Amino acid sequence: MDVDLYDEFGNYIGPDLESDDEEEETYKDAEPEQEEYDGEEAMDEDGNVDDEPALMAVVLHEDKKYYPLASEVYGPDVETIVQEEDTQALDKPLIEPVKKHKFQVKEQDLPETVYNMEFLADLMDTSHLIRNVAIVGNLHHGKTNFVDCLVQQTHPDIRPLEGKFLRYTDTLITEQERGVSIKAVPVTLVMQDVRNESYLMNIFDTP
């Protein structure tokens, strides 16, 4: 370091130096050499198209394609709906736990049966012991009388009047007067099979 070029405060007092502006001007004047592109794709020795110029191209983030479109995956004939917002509530889980319903007898003054009503309510919780039966047939073929026989077998206090049929499922007055069922009525009973295993029978008496 030459001490004569600087004063006591460290300021440069020597001869004038070339400024940086001149260097920038000379750099701007020099045009960079660019290869001329004749419009033909680059070919390798085997005659295949060289993809290197395409890979070197600058692609913006919004122009990039990360995933295929729905029309490309499923075809143009399939209608796709994109739902961006999550409509499921936050307090609702994705996989809800299975809720087991417990039935209880709330109604009072029920008719007397050969089984306990609590036992009937417990059978409602066991789906493999439930049987759903619909009695279907032509007019006056004894569908309602068959249901009356099942009701009398399970309800000892329910008996028909002398010279009349019970017609337990005919609840309408017009049905009782005409002796013809007009609407379907379900009846739930507890019946046993030949092995004395109890089943909950949901019997549907149809017109």
TrEMBL record:
* A single Gene Ontology CC term: U2-type catalytic step 2 spliceosome
Could you tell me which InterPro entries the record lists for this protein? EFTUD2_N, P-loop_NTPase, T_Tr_GTP-bd_dom
Q: Which GO biological-process labels does this protein carry? A: mRNA splicing, via spliceosome
Q: Where does the 116kDa U5 small nuclear ribonucleoprotein component N-terminal domain start and stop, copy by copy?
A: 4-111
Which Pfam family is an annotated match for this chain, by its short name? EFTUD2
The superkingdom of the source organism is Eukaryota
Indicate, by first and last residue, each region the UniProt record lists as having compositional bias (Acidic residues): 17-49
Q: Positions of the region Disordered?
A: 1-49
One of the entry's Gene Ontology molecular-function terms is: GTPase activity
Recorded hits in Gene3D superfamilies, A to Z, give: P-loop containing nucleotide triphosphate hydrolases
- All copies of the Tr-type G domain together span 130-207
Q: Name the PANTHER family on file.
A: 116 KDA U5 SMALL NUCLEAR RIBONUCLEOPROTEIN COMPONENT (PTHR42908:SF6), TRANSLATION ELONGATION FACTOR-RELATED (PTHR42908)
Name recorded for this polypeptide: Tr-type G domain-containing protein
Write down the species.
Cloeon dipterum
